[in-house]
Model the fold of this input.
Amino acid sequence: MSKQRTVTFNHNPLLRHGLPTWRPRVVMLGLMACSLALIGRAMYLQGVNNEFLQAKGESRYARVLEVPATRGRVTDRHGDMLAVSTPVRSIWAIPTDVNLTPPDARKLAGLLEMDVQELNRRLAAGRDFVYLKRQLSPETAQQIADLKLAGIHQQQEYRRYYPGGEVMAHVLGFTGVDDKGQEGVELAFDGTLAGKPGARRVIRDRRGQIIEDVEAIRAPRDGQDLALSIDAKIQYLAYSALRQAMQTHKAKAGASVVLDARTGEVLALVNAPTYNPNNRSNLSGAQLRNRVLTDVYEPGSIMKPFIVGLALDRGKVQPGTIIDTSAGRMTIGRATISDSHRNGPLTVAQVIQKSSNIGTVKVAMHFSPDEMWRLYDDLGFGKPLNLGFPGEAGGRLRPAKTWKPIEQATMSYGHGVSVTLIQMAHAYLAFARDGELVPLSLTRLDAPPVGGKRIFSTATAREMRGMLELASGPGGTAPKAQVAGYRVAGKTGTAIKLEGAHYTNKYVSSYVGLAPVSDPRLIVAVMIDEPSAGQYYGGAVAAPVFAQITEGALRALGVAPDAPLVPLQLAQKQGVVVPARENM
Done:
């Protein structure tokens, strides 16, 4: 048996082939270079430029929070509060930090006015941030804070409060959950009222609690206060009178607007049906519609004074000019125009007093379609008044070149043209201001406007006021418009409603008037949509609303009476001597 040779590990032949001497040195130098680079980088970041590490740390714990700005207040012309922001709290959560026991979940859900299932569903939404409830009262928010629940946090917000409720709803509109304007003045003047939020940087722990207030980045800038032209007392008078008329005549809707004849300021603007902006649950489109500005309708006989005024201004007729309406009917092409009564020969003044369609058409035939169109355009029909109010309509006034003879005739007495109630009230400023038309304003003016548009001469405007006073007295279409102690002038309108392309058996009853006649201060326009209690003429339905609003408004403004304290028609029945009136 041969003897085996033992070879140890250190005598392994493979080890006789050594590595190159430069190789370990290179590796060693590489490792040392990396170490020096890391040490240098650490020294640079910690000693020379530590902003990077600071930013990384802040990204985990620092937060920039918005500091809400208070929305500006809205007041009436006398400074009475109409809209104000009140502090509220919003409850939010970091779902991953929330671990509610069943009793805590029930308590929290009860304070949030939601069921436990809804609360759990929101917390399980898989997001890092979730609102549980917006705009809670401070008292309820404090009760939630007292529960000391991990992951449940609060932040301050503001909620709009409207002391006037439904009376001011269509003027003010409302704001959304983020305190941004969504309707009415709140939307129209949102840029003025909203202000700009500020910002501050804070340090929070992993539970979201603020442990250090680092710095204020930007101070909040509160919104500006806004003084409207609205008079809260007159607004309430108009609202009460309109609501009463709606109930009396079982109407579908109604609207009224009151203007200051001296300045063009809107003193009241009301609609029915309305809503409470403080509680907007179950709102309908009918409640939200601001009919004064957005609903267009054919005005009917309220348009007649403008045509007569144009004829007086051009010297085509005089107040005493006789117009033959004896037949009570008039044919143009295949169409027939008629009056509600056979009036016989009428003076131009009586055409307005009796509201004769035929008489108005015969006056309108003195003009070309272009001349009538220019008058209507100068009065502001067919285009918005640019009040800045959301949804303001412009009405419909077709180009004159498309008018047929029968259309020119019907447009002279308010059919075939559509307007809004505020457009009509604005146009009547031309009669109240001695022929001059000024823009309207929803905000309080510090001085009367200067340089209005001239529509009629002063003499014509005063003659028209005299005719409109006849229309609102005994023998006219609106004796119920009279106000004890004041001379009033105005015109009724009773228009058949147009739905689609067809006229219906429904009516829009309206009245636009001014008072006092001797020195006009107010323009009041009233529209009642679809009265269904038996009466539908403007003189019976809308004129009494005008009288009720005008009487209260003139007394609230302290306007001196210019007539007997007994209405004219009653004074004549009782044999009271009525003072002579100056020529208008």
Q: What stands out?
A: The first strand starts at residue 62 and ends at 67. Residues 48 and 228 are 59 Å apart (CA to CA). Residues 574-584 have pLDDT under 50 and may be disordered.
